[in-house]
Amino acid sequence: MERLIRFPELVKDPVLVEQFVAQMTDYELARLSIGGQTGWGIEDNGYAGTLFNEEALDKYEIPDYFFADGNNGLNMFEVNIGFPVSTTVCASFNEELSYAEGAAIAREAKDMNLHCLLAPALNLQRNPLCGRHTEYFSEDPFLAGRMAGQESRGFEESGISSCMKHFFANNAETMRNTNHSIMSERTARELYLAAFETAFEVNKPDTVMTGYNAANGAYCSNDEELLRGILREEFGFTGYVMTDWNGYGDEGMAAPLAAGVSWLAPGSPDDTLVTPIEAALKSGDLSRARVQKNLVDLIKVVLKYREA
């Protein structure tokens, strides 16, 4: 029987990450790909969620890894500083200010034992139907990207992972799980994708969240060309991709993982959502190698911020 590799060994020897993931059963790969909650907020503290169902994966000694929203302060029950919203900061045209805000929010996040902030939110303020414009920076992709990139850099250089969202063209809150953003290739490339590309030139975040919406025929969380072609191959992203809360698309639980999503949020404490993924792995409909690669990307980020 081969020796079990546990998470604490990875801290000492990160090259074991691929072996760590490869030793897992189909069930464990499926369980690790899904969060352990059913909604928003856990343990009466306001955390948005945690990556892992500890009980199911206890033998691997994977530590807690907590999230919260944090565009302009922490969405937590504990009192913390309310900073100016992204639109206000962006109106200053001051990149150093955006960086400083990110760094200050991250310092508070570390004090509250957080590891990842679900921010910055980076869409463009071009559609009046969008209900989250105060979270976004600007209608201009260059300005929005520069300012979001600096806030993201402020988070990560202060020891907190940045989850840039919602990738991409997330333009409405009404029926947001079924909203469909249809645009020309030029509009997509020169506006909505350009904002993220510009932000990545400032700071490549370690986490990206997909939008609820579909864009030009495919849900963002199910779109392999978007997540593996554009995000990774063109933009050089090397972290992990997560969904928005219950934003799994319309092709079943395995489809986002096949497209390159590492983690489905918020998941479920039981195996309701795990079972179809395990079945897809066993049948070969979902590539085990693809899921392993997704989880290697995820565990590398967890290692980085558990040590920060």
UniProtKB/TrEMBL annotation:
Alphabetical GO biological process terms: carbohydrate metabolic process
Gene3D superfamilies (alphabetical): Glycoside hydrolase, family 3, N-terminal domain
Glycoside hydrolase family 3 N-terminal domain residues: 59-298
Keyword annotations: Hydrolase
InterPro entries recorded: Cellulose_deg_GH3, GH, Glyco_hydro_3_N, Glyco_hydro_3_N_sf
Pfam family, one: Glyco_hydro_3
One function term, GO molecular function aspect: hydrolase activity, hydrolyzing O-glycosyl compounds
Protein family (similarity comment): Belongs to the glycosyl hydrolase 3 family.
Protein name in the entry: Glycoside hydrolase family 3 N-terminal domain-containing protein
